[in-house]
Model the fold of this input.
Amino acid sequence: MQKKRKWFFRMAFASLLRRKSRMLIALLAIVVGATILSGLVTVYIDVPRQMGAEFRNYGANVIFTSKDGTALTIEEINDGLSNVNSSQIVGMTPYRYETVRINQTPVTAAGTDMSSVLKTSPYWSVDGEIPDKDGEILIGATVAQNYNLQVEKSISVTFTPEEVAEEAVAFDNGDEAAEGETSTSDVVLDNYIDFKITGILNTGGAEENYIYMSLEDLEELTQIPTTISLAEVSISASGSDLTAVVGSINQNSENVSAKVVKRVTASETTVLGKLQALILLVTIIVLALTMITVATTMTASVTERRREIGLKKALGALDGEIIKEFMGEQVLLGGFGGLIGTILGFLFAQLISVNVFSSSIVFRPVLLPLTIVISMAVTAVACLIPIRNATEIEPALVLKGE
Amino acid sequence: MFGRMIKGILTRQWKKMLMIGLTIALGASLATAMLSVMLDVGDKINQELKAYGANIIVSPQEASVIEDLYDVEGGDKATKAYLREDELSKVKTIFWAFNIVDYSPFISTSVKLDDGSEVKLTGSWFNHHLELATGETLDSGIRNMRSWWDIEDGDWIDEQGSGAEGECMVGTELAKKLGISVGDSLHVTGNASAADLTVKGIFDAGGDEDEYIFTTLDTAQAIGGLDGKVDTIEVSALTTPDNELSEKAAKDPGSLTIKQYETWYCTAYASAICYQLTEVITDSTAAPVRQVASSEGAILDKTELLMGLIAVLSMVGSALGICNLVTASVMDRSREIGLMKAIGAQNSSIILQVITEILITAAIGGAAGFAAGIGFAQIIGQTVFGSSIALRTMVIPIVIVAVLAITLIGCIPAIRQLLKLSPTEVLHE
Done:
């Protein structure tokens, strides 16, 4: 029995080696099929994640506010974020809003963490630079236009503490036309800081009406310890996953009330769903067509070996043995092709990922056995019919070359 | 003689030729389907991205300019600038009118409720029916442009139905605060007049709008005393992702050369559409909403590149498959060709014969595959996007050339080998 098996493998390998060029053709067919199979499946699995990251261009999809209507602290926000898998967090930006004055007219100032704003608002377009140290300020385009401000200029921002606010309101109403002239009592009580303008912000939205400085500067200006009005959070999840994440934040954290930004998330689920459906369909169609091509090539390569089959039969081989031998040979080829195809398919997916999303993908080990098994199955099915047909033929006829 | 031999091959060896034809057909259908989908996917995804709402906002030029220059007195409310309602139809007359999918005017005014609280009342289009000069009709309004709203109770206001004037929709936060539900009557007092509005629906917008009341444009104008005036126009347009030229143009169209200007003006960049909108609407500025416009660009670029790469790589795959099969099937005929050589056939006539056979098969297979490919593309279009995929004429020549080239390339290694054959060896075997 063992001897027979040894003989079987020797026959199979010898056949593969002897008929180099033909086998190369069959192998190439399987490799192409397996490459497309494993490559497209990898892309299909990976696309939602990669595309989801692209959708984070729309900015924050979750907003943190406090549960009791008061302000938040950074600790409370981080506590809320601890409920999210850290690899899913794209960015978090805290915002503190205060009304300040430029040239005695009120403007909304936002104190924020300048290093993280671009993570939650990637669509911001800044003429100049985003401030990276204290004493620098980013101003919205509308503000820049209204006060005729330019990059590199400096600007004095004042804040009226609450104690003098009432007085200031009364004063302000009477004095709006006479810009710049201020009564002495006001100047003494107002806090002010001179900022250097590093950039002008264009968004086409409400952000253009605000000015942005660091939380530390805003604290210094107002002389009120930092509290956070709200935090924008960008989490790479969509649909029900995101709802679950937000639910767990709301349940587990003490003071954070997380809300989904519907405008961003509702549409993302739809578009991402369509995109994934598109790639699934394309994958199925391409795979079906490729597998048929592989099958026809395999069929052709077996059909041309009818003479060999005829000779074997003439020498007394049984039909069952011939089928077993040929199938074994082809399936072995299928498995080998599947192995090469898996590797090439990974490179194919990597090529797409790097070119389209500029990020690499991880190799999924499960695809290796999957691709090999499918390649073997396709070759087996493709060879079954021509081999059976060949065995039914009279050896004499085949050998005569009819 | 030549014709008879070709015919003989095609009829006697029809099984083998059928297989080659089938493989070429599959390859051609794959190429046709992938190319069609690839060329159309941008438009389709662009349509889907319209779910994010407006990507361009048209607003009046700042009133402050006039105020500052001429020292016009009178407080900020009186000099607030507005757009003109009678100019709204001009939006669909610009060069890129066809790319404007939806647009909707907004007018906001603050109203007092019976309990003394002030809320924001916004008038807009819901499903406003437009009859355009071109004969086109369009149902435009926030029903499409606020696709992310959840209608918690009731329904959208139907402007085409009766009684829309006396109806309003209330944001979920406000409805909770006031304890009102669908069918209730809400008494609002505005700057000009008071009105009783019937609550038609309660919506959850997941943002500031949850605190607002929405009603038709006419109703809001009457209540606020703002007849014929519009605050902003939100425009949802299909745009081409920005590039260097469009960014330069967005800053200052005057900085372009005449040729650049023409290219820019005649390409559907967000900045070009904005520019054209300000041309037709008096005293307006239009700006792309960067959150929507720039993200759209990124996603469109990525999707097109992704589909393009999948298309190219899978076509390369099927091309290899076809080449392979052609090689295999031509080599298979070594005996026959050996015989032809033995009875004096010249190499050139053998090549001609082999190529003619294969090309006839390829032509038939390719034509069948092309038809099947269009079918596949439509299956994809209907299943995924619910609309058909447009067939670009450029796909036809690409597929024809590709099928011919691939088939011929597939023949080359086989022919080279066949020519090397010595008849005695082959026939003896």
